[in-house]
Amino acid sequence: MNIRKLDINEIASQIELEGSWRDTEYTQIRNALYAQSTSEAQTENFNKSLLLLLYSNYEGFCKSVFAIYIEGINSLNLKCHQVNNPIRASSLQSVFDAYDQLDRKGKIFKKSLPDDSNLHRLCRRTEFIDSLENFNNIVVKLDVEKVTDVESNLWPHVLKKILYRSGLDTEAFQNEEGELSRLVNRRNAIAHGAQRSGVSAIDFANYETAVHTTKEKIKNMILNAASISEFLSASTEQVVQGA
User: Fold this and answer.
1) Among 72, 84, 78, which Cα is nearest to 7's?
2) In sequence order, what are the residues at sequence separation of 6 or more whose Cβ sits closer than 8 angstroms to the Cβ of residue 73?
3) Within a 10 A sphere around the Cβ of 67, how many other Cβ atoms?
4) Which has the closest alpha carbon to 48: 200, 155, 158?
5) What is the secondary structure of 185-237 as a DSSP string?
6) For 149-177, how does the pLDDT look when each residue is reduced to its tens digit (9 = 90+)?
7) Which residue from 132, 157, 150 is spatially nearest to 60, judged by alpha carbons?
8) How much is the pTM?
């Protein structure tokens, strides 16, 4: 079985580039603001503005690097039976979406019995079962936007959703969840005008640490997953190792 592997150097290069320009931009603005500060109160006000940029940096980085990983998997043209179950399910999202369309009519009875909901539910189930044998040979083409959807805010539970859809460890950020939740809460309060006071140096340092740690963990997780082909199913991995 000829299974292509992800180019780990290319993945690493793309992630490094993505992180580099974001960190450079953030650091330049941060330093420029702090250089103008003449008091603790002024620094706290600057921190309030910087917190919005910090969150944007975090959300943008996460979405972009997960997209790099997912696009890499798509480029391998794997079959559904060759990938792990979360990746397989994510790849078949359009199939499941069609089944979930409760107003979709069965082809046979679409005209003769258009309002028989129980019958059309049976038709959808039958069509789904008829398609099962073909699922395994469908080429994996993940919808990058859907897999990496950060929704309205990148809360820790939203990050878990992305990890799960990507076939990655959903429990990797338990230590950072509390601080990340506080970051999102505070970002929303500032953005919506509910918080007008500044952000203390201690709180801001904690937010920065949580973001930096999370970004590093995500980078390392993706690089490790790419290097060991974690997206493959157990049976495919055994075949590759035995080849």
Assistant:
1) 72
2) 6, 83, 87, 140, 142, 231
3) 17
4) 200
5) HHHHHHHTTS--S---HHHHHHHHHHHHHHHHHHHHHHHHHHHTTTTB-HHHH
6) 999 999 999 999 999 999 999 999 999 99
7) 150
8) 0.85
